[in-house]
């Protein structure tokens, strides 16, 4: 039964539906894997095994009576710690919400419950989704299953690591500036950021409201397409969701590369590691041999993506996190002084260093006399970046580039230099600023056995094309990857 955990998502779905596997068998195998391996990976913040097994038992009973909720009934899924589940702690890996129990379900959770998925909360993350390595969690640092001396990426590091360590076949994360795609790349799995407005954000604890988007991780492509179909759609509880044609996973298919125009970047303009650069060029050569036309794009505006992103994101985080004041809910530090002391002491004790840094930067950029000089200019630059992507897709079918400039770095390697850490997101943040969809696909490993990811991007709400290209890319031998069976 141990081999169950190494099945792909699509194999698990097939076995559950043909009756050769029960949800209880599957869930028990994953719980055993977590028990033996999560002390090294640290993907989970807590786990109620009895509650999880009860869900699995209920699913099996539904199938036994011929009344499953859906073809997905009984499939385990991990949930990032900033997505609300009624009756569960939703702490955002922060001390300020350490004991906060959500009174309601996020829209994505409601949709998954209707299909019968078995929930495995809570997956570790950078505090309030602010980070690129999961080292900013208030509780623990998650590790990369390929090498536990290295980070899994962030902020959705726990969600990515759980799938890469074969503790789960699929999970949910959130992506504000690369927080799904970057850890997916560093952990050798699939990770999708949908078009902004495709998936409801209701019940996602906000970091930067104009950038955040919930999306899936999976150990194969089918998990990504199935989850996107389930999660997407207009939501009256979230006015930023868009009324567009619903995504249909059955429309995803392989494409013929011949004649397709692939947008690429000039590698000499970016500081890619030698292995990442070599793999990118190998993939481009392979696609060219299949008849694709490679079109070099002008990514000159990309150098502004990091400063623009961190001005807009921190301004929004300053506003969103103002609600955590020690009065309404969350951590409260009793004081005998003034009301301002209560605010100050509660927030000082509850927020970590990186969250405080971003609140301060955002508050400064929104302050009188500096708004136009910083935040206002950043918003104008964002419009230019969005326009640049629109221009790109007038001349190419899809953009293909590395997801991360390097493979996973070592724990502690960049924590003393925030700017160096921010640069880890240089290839992902512009996608969030433009609001377009992008997916990170496994692209083999480097000479040290560490995963490399390739990012594909298409125009707004063109996820069918995006996933069709990603599915076709996965057929290349260069992109094959095997997840680690032993966690060392």
Kindly describe this structure.
- The protein has 488 residues and is α/β, with parallel strands linked by helices.
- It has one domain: Amidase signature (AS) domain (Amidase signature (AS) enzymes), CATH 3.90.1300.10.
- Helices cover 38% and strands 11% of the residues.
- The protein is built from 15 helices and 10 strands.
- The chain has a 10-stranded mixed β-sheet with strand order 2-1-3-5-4-9-10-8-6-7, with helices on both faces.
- Strand 1 (76-80), helix 4 and strand 2 form a beta-alpha-beta unit.
- The two termini are 21 Å apart.
- The active site is at residues 80, 155, 179.
- Its EC number is 6.3.5.7.
- Heterotrimer of A, B and C subunits.
- It comes from Leptospira ellinghausenii.
């Amino acid at each position: 039964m141990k081999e169950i955990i190494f099945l792909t998502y699509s194999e698990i779905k097939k076995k559950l539906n043909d009756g050769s596997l029960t949800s209880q068998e599957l869930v028990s195998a994953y719980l055993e894997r977590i028990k033996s391996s999560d002390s090294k990976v640290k993907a989970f913040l807590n786990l109620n095994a009895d509650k999880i097994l009860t869900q699995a038992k209920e699913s099996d009973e539904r199938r036994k009576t011929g009344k499953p909720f859906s073809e997905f009934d009984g499939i385990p899924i991990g949930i990032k710690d900033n997505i609300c589940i009624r009756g569960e702690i939703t702490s955002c890996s922060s001390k300020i919400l350490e004991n906060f129990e959500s009174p309601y379900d996020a829209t994505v959770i409601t949709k998954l419950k209707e299909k019968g998925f078995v929930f495995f909360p809570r997956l570790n993350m950078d505090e309030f989704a602010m980070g690129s390595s999961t080292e900013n969690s208030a509780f623990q640092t998650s590790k990369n299953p390929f090498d536990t001396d290295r980070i899994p990426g962030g902020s959705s590091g726990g969600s990515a690591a759980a799938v890469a360590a074969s503790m789960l076949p699929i999970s949910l994360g959130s992506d504000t500036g690369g927080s799904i795609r970057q850890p997916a790349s560093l952990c050798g799995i699939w990770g999708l950021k949908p078009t902004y407005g495709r998936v409801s954000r209701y019940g996602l604890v906000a970091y930067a409201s104009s950038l955040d988007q919930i999306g899936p991780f999976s150990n194969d492509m089918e998990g990504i397409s199935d989850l996107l179909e389930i999660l997407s759609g207009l939501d009256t509880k979230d006015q930023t969701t868009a009324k567009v044609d619903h995504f249909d996973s059955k429309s995803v298919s392989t494409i013929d590369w011949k004649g397709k125009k692939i947008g690429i970047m000039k590698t000499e303009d970016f500081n890619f590691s030698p292995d990442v650069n070599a793999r990118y060029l190998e993939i481009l050569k392979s696609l060219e041999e299949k008849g694709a036309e490679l079109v070099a794009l002008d990514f000159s505006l990309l150098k502004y993506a990091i400063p623009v992103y961190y001005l807009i994101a921190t301004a929004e985080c300053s506003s969103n996190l103002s609600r955590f004041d020690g009065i309404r809910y969350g951590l409260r530090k009793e004081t005998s002084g003034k009301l301002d002391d209560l605010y100050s002491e509660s927030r000082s004790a509850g927020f970590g260093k990186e969250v405080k840094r971003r609140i301060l930067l955002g508050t400064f950029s929104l302050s009188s006399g500096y708004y136009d000089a910083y935040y206002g200019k950043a918003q104008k630059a964002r419009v230019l970046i969005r326009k640049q992507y629109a221009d790109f897709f007038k001349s190419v079918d899809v953009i293909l580039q590395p997801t991360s400039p390097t493979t996973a770095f070592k724990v502690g390697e960049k924590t003393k230099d925030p700017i160096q850490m921010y640069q880890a997101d240089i290839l992902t943040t512009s996608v969030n600023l433009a609001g377009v969809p992008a997916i990170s696909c496994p692209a083999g490993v480097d000479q040290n056995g560490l995963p490399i990811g390739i990012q594909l991007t298409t125009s707004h709400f063109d996820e069918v094309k995006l996933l069709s290209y990603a599915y076709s890319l996965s057929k290349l031998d260069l992109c094959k990857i095997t997840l680690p069976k032993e966690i060392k």
